[in-house]
User: What shape does this take?
Amino acid sequence: MITAEYPDSAEVTIDMRPVLHPKFQALADGISEFTFANIYLFRRTHNYRISRLDNELFVITGRDKENPFFILPFGLPDENIVAELFHNHHVMKAASAQQAEILSKMGYTACEDRDNFDYLYSREDLVNLTGRKFHKKKNLLNLFVRNNEYQAKPLLEEYRDDALQILERWNQQHDGSNDFFAAKEALEKMWPLQLCGGIFYIDEQPAAYCLGEELALGESFVIHFEKAVLADNSRGVYQYINQAFASILPEKYKTVNREQDLGNPGLRQAKMSYNPVDFVRKYKVTPG
Assistant: This one.
């Protein structure tokens, strides 16, 4: 239960999942932050806390470094509470297009938050890689397939230790990462959080994994974590992971959400190179 009523707040704990998960699952916009697993796993990164506004609405507040913010995944409260939230927390993040439109009419300033747009890809495109726009990706995939013995498996609990080994080696190669602890906890708690994914072996050695969940009313699958250990024989491994995992996703998932680029130029180029079919647009809202 979530008993803290705004302005009081509580830490996000895993026993809140039975209340919050169904509410997140009922959201149609497909914003990658708006899953219980994401909020829970990044609760320390963003200093998330949660408060009840009424019987149906909750506000999640946070702080990045010294910058306070709030998000309203399940809808906007009345104008007086909205004004209080802006007064206390200054910025609303991850606002949907509909929320941004309503808040603009109320006199607030809503701006597209391009660095946090989610990239949406056609699942079918990722499986088939057909056409000139995927020519380079298909070549790299074929190169990997020709040069390696490989195997893809569902990321079941029996393979968790292998996935943790991949994560540790990946972290060493990247001199530490902002999402290491969240990624580690995601593997440790993938069953209670109901996360699923795939694990990939090269020459019978664990080499890569991805982990995520469904969103957008079950029409999209979001990949929260994707890690691969780079080696001499790993050229094309990311193309292989993308294609192999998309090929085992049920056809009900029309799109794969690969989250945001956070304004990183290299990451933006890599994500754009896979020809997204759309974006999940998010807005940052501030007082007018």
